[in-house]
Amino acid sequence: MKVKTYKTESLEEGLENIKRDLGHEALILSTRSVKVRPPYGLFKKASWEITAALDDRAQEQTAAPAPRPQAAVRDRRQSEPVASMAATERRYSGAAAAVAPAPERQKVIVQRDARMDDIIGEISDLKKSLRSLSQALPSKSQDFGGGLFAEMVTSGISHELADHLITTAAKGKPTPSELRDRVRRLLSDQLVVAPPAELSAKARIVSVFVGPTGVGKTTTIAKIAGHASIRLKKKVALISTDMFRVGGQEQLSRFGELLGIPAYGCADISTLKSLVASLDDRDLVLIDTAGSSPSDLARLSKLENVISSADAKVHMVMTATTRSEDIAKIVSRFGRFSPASAIITKIDETDAKGSFVGDLLRNELVVSYLTNGQRVPEDLLIPSAPELARFVLPQEPAI
């Protein structure tokens, strides 16, 4: 195979050179725009670098074209470049890698280079990040903004949101402390906190708790049950449908004994609806489920049967220590159950509390409860939006 690279000032010139040297069977491998500095020149000029190839067998099989009258060649060159260049400009205006074929036999086959699309996408993302950073970081003459932006991004807030909040809050040139307070308030406005229906609702509530294995669903249920029963004097019942984990039902039953709350095991999902209906004298029914990996689609399907049988409000339970990438996967897979809210557990096990706040914003989650320890029922928190915003931006910047 014969491979050749051309450097020309225009695509039209490059295509003409390829057709002249390699013929109309040539295959364009890559095309990119580059800038070169001419000899003794001060400024770089835009040019094109085109790599083309011709299969030796195709070259042998292709007969030399018969000579044409000079007038016909001249007429063709007068009309062809206009259409060819117009098509080329349309295709390459977005850095695509395909060239519209010329009419008749003067056709150049173009192979799209996927690497160019990847590089262009990365450059676009980089430009966007740099643009956000340049807009959010004020000049050195202003004694605020830069550190605040870095603090928010480090805490898990997206570049775009941090840029928007700082730009909005910086109007009027507030002092650094005023800017911090403004940004915190604006961030608070972005967060959505659901009222704790299990504790505040006047009507009967049936709630089911779903989430990955090991996130603390059972302990969280016991904490909510303890608050409702001991402090609010509600009539509560517990149901466990955890048939997979060893001791899953026993753990919930033990909590029920300690709190003086009846606990039931439901091994047959077909009877769950009847069990829930039989507890119509209870103000609150809390249903525990087996932990499910987001990748275990079979178990998620079984869990769907539990939720449909219970006809309950769904809470999705996650830990504050879960990586953002895994949070996104959990939200995607458990979203099939249309959870009313998210519960974030184990916030006492991380110093980077702002990270889960960023995850709430990125995944557009409503949060209802936080837990910060193993004590039942004490370690249950009812969050507020200002409190969550302080996890990202404390009253004073972290040292």
Describe this protein's structure:
By secondary structure, this protein is α/β, with parallel strands linked by helices. It has three domains: 2-112, no CATH class; 117-190, no CATH class; 197-383, P-loop containing nucleotide triphosphate hydrolases (Rossmann fold, 3-Layer(aba) Sandwich). 45% of the residues lie in helices and 17% in strands. It has helices at 11-21, 56-61, 70-92, 114-136, 146-154, 159-169, 176-190, 197-200, 217-231, 248-259, 272-278, 297-310, 324-334, 353-362, 385-392, and strands at 2-8, 27-36, 45-54, 109-110, 205-210, 236-240, 263-265, 284-288, 313-319, 341-345, 367-371, 380-381. An eight-stranded mixed sheet has the order 7-6-8-5-9-10-11-12, with helices on both faces. A four-stranded mixed sheet has the order 1-3-2-4.
Q: What name does the CATH topology of the largest domain carry? A: Rossmann fold
Measured between the Cα atoms of the first and last residue, the distance is 63 Å
CATH level-4 homologous superfamily of the largest domain: P-loop containing nucleotide triphosphate hydrolases
Helix fraction bin: 40-55%
Q: Could you tell me the number of beta strands?
A: 12
Within the largest sheet, what's the order of strands?
7-6-8-5-9-10-11-12
Biggest sheet statistics: 8 strands, mixed
Q: What Rg, in angstroms, do the CA atoms define?
A: 33 Å
Shape: elongated
Question: What is the SS-derived class?
Answer: alpha/beta
Strand content is 15-25%
Number of domains: 3
- CATH architecture of the largest domain, by name, is 3-Layer(aba) Sandwich
Q: Average pLDDT, to the nearest integer?
A: 76
The SSE string, one letter per element, is EHEEHHEHHHHHEHEHEHEHEHEHEEH
List unreliable stretches of 5+ residues: 69-103, 135-144
How many DSSP helices? 15
Query: Regarding CATH, which class of the largest domain?
Result: Alpha Beta
